[in-house]
Task: structure prediction
Amino acid sequence: MATKAKIGVLGASGYTGAELVRLLLRHPRAEIVLATADRRAGQEMREVFPQFSPFALPKLVAIDGLDWRSLNLDLIFCALPHATTQKVIKDIFAANPAAKVIDLSADFRLADTASYARWYGHEHYAPDLQKRAVYGLAEIYRREIKKAQLVANPGCYTSCAELPLLPLIKAKAIDLDEIVIDAKSGMTGAGRAAKEAMLFSEVSEGFHAYGVGHHRHMAELDQEFSLAAGREVIVTFTPHLVPMNRGILSTIYVRGKRGRNATDLHAILSKSYMKEPFVHVLPFGAVPQTRHVRGSNMTFIGVANDRVPGRAIVVAALDNLVKGASGQAVQNMNLMLGFPETMGLEQVALFP
Amino acid sequence: MATKAKIGVLGASGYTGAELVRLLLRHPRAEIVLATADRRAGQEMREVFPQFSPFALPKLVAIDGLDWRSLNLDLIFCALPHATTQKVIKDIFAANPAAKVIDLSADFRLADTASYARWYGHEHYAPDLQKRAVYGLAEIYRREIKKAQLVANPGCYTSCAELPLLPLIKAKAIDLDEIVIDAKSGMTGAGRAAKEAMLFSEVSEGFHAYGVGHHRHMAELDQEFSLAAGREVIVTFTPHLVPMNRGILSTIYVRGKRGRNATDLHAILSKSYMKEPFVHVLPFGAVPQTRHVRGSNMTFIGVANDRVPGRAIVVAALDNLVKGASGQAVQNMNLMLGFPETMGLEQVALFP
Amino acid sequence: MATKAKIGVLGASGYTGAELVRLLLRHPRAEIVLATADRRAGQEMREVFPQFSPFALPKLVAIDGLDWRSLNLDLIFCALPHATTQKVIKDIFAANPAAKVIDLSADFRLADTASYARWYGHEHYAPDLQKRAVYGLAEIYRREIKKAQLVANPGCYTSCAELPLLPLIKAKAIDLDEIVIDAKSGMTGAGRAAKEAMLFSEVSEGFHAYGVGHHRHMAELDQEFSLAAGREVIVTFTPHLVPMNRGILSTIYVRGKRGRNATDLHAILSKSYMKEPFVHVLPFGAVPQTRHVRGSNMTFIGVANDRVPGRAIVVAALDNLVKGASGQAVQNMNLMLGFPETMGLEQVALFP
Amino acid sequence: MATKAKIGVLGASGYTGAELVRLLLRHPRAEIVLATADRRAGQEMREVFPQFSPFALPKLVAIDGLDWRSLNLDLIFCALPHATTQKVIKDIFAANPAAKVIDLSADFRLADTASYARWYGHEHYAPDLQKRAVYGLAEIYRREIKKAQLVANPGCYTSCAELPLLPLIKAKAIDLDEIVIDAKSGMTGAGRAAKEAMLFSEVSEGFHAYGVGHHRHMAELDQEFSLAAGREVIVTFTPHLVPMNRGILSTIYVRGKRGRNATDLHAILSKSYMKEPFVHVLPFGAVPQTRHVRGSNMTFIGVANDRVPGRAIVVAALDNLVKGASGQAVQNMNLMLGFPETMGLEQVALFP
Result:
């Protein structure tokens, strides 16, 4: 049996941390040897997430005082809050310049540190590292990820908009000034921090939009769409919260350009993703449901005619904790460590 | 004490029927003297909806064989399935030309019977009655409803799009060719018929769009928007199902015309609904949540800036069974029978 | 029109506070003139609970510094956290010995302050007031409540066990040493404080027991059952959390005594509650569902045969925020202020 | 690579069928070569369950006309409705006496065909086969299952009561006349047939008991408990429905015998299951939650003190579709075909 890579999970008491643990526990080539959680340091993982009771896992430790060099980790997943992340990753690379890190926060996603400062309200703490960061959407940046030491795992909302839109933008098939992304997310996207607005009774049996007109994920969308288009693109994007745990669905309204209709857009997407293991384009006219990708690393995409001539509706669905976060991160790990890209990610969706 | 109007509820075993009963049981001027449910005829209402166990209600009967003349009803609510409705209402008016009927189905909403035939696949059975039907959105057609004998209660999706959009269209404030309505509904909108797709396990913990590009409510939207605009309007409309019982939220993307920005649109809506008891416009930038209108007859509307210059986002929320169906119907009854418009509809939303 | 009673609601930013406001807004004889919420002082009620946006309500204020005498309130509802409550109510009566207070916390429910100290870990701050407090289960203590100045509104779990069990215990119809109460509650029972365990994603799509063997409500059950039995009674009680907002269901396992079978128990309960407006006993063999009392002040009770000879199963359901808290409190207010007992509480359950 | 066993799944359009497909798709030694679904015959599996879209699966066929001999299947899972099952399995063994069948219905669970007739209202169609059927609770009947040709997979409710209770009964540690099982199940336990009572809007935001005093699973409990006790045992059992998809939780009230207290019961269970891969006993006093076993083949068991002297509370949780049905079935397949018992069943629970 091949030796296993030694893996660290920073921030193991949050939802993306737990999802990394779930996936890595069954990955044939990875072994979790470090798990951190500052507020839960000293506890066993099973006290924080009882579903791991039957499994052997390292005790949770605090980050402060870790000796990144002697730990000798093959790869580190960083599932820490925004801003803290920059400081920790700076420390890691200072101690061990050969480290490999996949960051699941937003901290290294924006190549332009000025844009970062504008959206996040402070200067970036590690602008030099930012230059070396690769945007971790595997279907688009596979080649770069393979050689990267620092990968900025994309946001869940953005992955669910970029996967359906990037091939259309690259093909110059849609009007760049009239893209409307109406996105709906399950509650795990909001994380595990105790906030009144996230209580069961505030969320259940209701639906609402939030961050209307000013959600931080917009900067990430702008960056990737503009890069693909070769010009500035600004999209309309509205996130909503659905009373469910997992899943993001993007309903995307586009206008075909140069005579392209919905069927043409479907053909472009089908061709783009024909060989991708984790992106599946449904037959024309069929649209995906979040429940059919739950717990899996799949993205399902559908394209349908709009009744307004010249327009089309593109719908994409993924599990925000898997393809939208930890599954994408494991996919990136596989690329960075030379494992088969699908290893440990082959679980079938859990429905119902 | 004033005498009570004698009311009939046809189709009392469905959700809109039950909601009519809930509201009428507490209406000071109405008394249910007839309740029909063909498949449950002979049963007590409490066997069909146990929440009514403590209340006295007439036993459920079948429609066939009812003598509409001798029943001497002051008003009939018709909550029957599509098509059946036309035949029953035809019978009612044949027997009693002075009848007053509020129909909660889609059967009398389309003034153009050709349009009806196109969307529903058969000729209308009562084209003459169609001519006399008044579209029952009280805030728009109050004056006509007061004099009407046959009111076509609007659809829940359409009310939640027409209330926010009609004033903007009438004011010529928005571009008519670029309206996108992304609508999300709770499950009661699908009715009580036993269908696999509506089972709890098919619906819970997931989210999806349906009827993409070809939902029947579009005909109703076209009609009202075109009428208001004085020209043909075709909107983009996508309905989605939310794993919750009640509530519709419409996220509406519009482009201001003639220099109107989001603030202007907010001002138009605020002014339009200033005196309306059942439409409440939130402060600029705030957007509504379905849970805050649950069980009430209120519609909440919010307007926010889009980041794309010239565009705005309008969000509306209502309870599909109340303002979207039975509450609107009781409001229409109040108008038709000369009662105060808010009578029996003053319940505060149930949250959480 | 009769003048309205001037009402204060202390703790208006929590769920029981909001539910009091919902009910009082439509009570014909009550007017909210004071609403407190320490952390939200200075805000409007609509900022804390947007469902109240269309209504005029006093601005939220802090409790500190209120002059209870000059406020001249006819009745005060106290929906504050445990322990704080004792101090505030002590202040109120110190300033105004003629005050009338209904406390929705657990602070004045235990007549025995030694028992209080044992379960709550500290001496009671107002033992003299405790002596004057009346236990506010209207169906049992109606006469005492009418004359009381301080009413201790019962707990939601306890009401849902006491209403079905007290008549059986008083009739000496069941074995007192073999009562098992398996209780299930919706999430609003846990309040609005932001705790990790109450987040949507921790609660949705799952079910669990808590406080197994040591829940504080047991002391209240012991007190009322022992009082009714004339000897010490200790029951088995296990609370569970259901992924829903509202509702408590108690499944109660009992053994008939002196030859009483399930039918006899049903007859005792039916007779006890025959004239009660808010307790409804279903036909023998039928059992209640929480959804059929949602939003109403009703308790539904059912009795069925167990297959084990001599045993019966009693099931009770109520809405924890209404009959289990704020509805019961308004019922007590009606008794204390001489209004009809059902005033403002006649809303029909909201289902679906 | 070892050759794969050729597997048939009868009834692949239901939930247990789909769950078998989910698990078998990732089983290294099994290949689905036949999938039936009478009403969906001719369709692809992805039309019935879109989550399987990315996978190659045989087209659905009808059962009628299948030649069981020439199909040459290594093992058949039968997930068909009650009664139909007996006829189909009779046909299978008639055509191929060497067949191996795991039946997920209730048809072969009751060894006593008279008991079957009493509970199901008709004579058993295959009493001879019944004699050869082995009850498929692997932890109890492992040895017999290895040699069996026909395995009757246990019911989900019964597994969740038998796993915690059988060791206690065998150890003569609890009073056999005072066992109360209060069970709560997610909605998938009710299957995929379209029934009004299972609609989302009937089930969401509510909780209720059903089959009080007369649920068919009782016969299965009686059989296994009586067998273990060496005398007749009749338990009190009440099932409830929780608004969630997956999971069963049993809260079990017992009285220790011969001085055994809760700690003793915990010790007995811990010892019994120490080496079992799919049953995990939590530390004393901790109780399980259904969400922590979701999607996994695990059963979690907890034991706590009751406050009533001499009594204890045992809580067990499992996923009704996995350990309660299809996962147990695959575990049985592994035993019958000589594969490692945990093969294909190692997925970690999906939480949140």
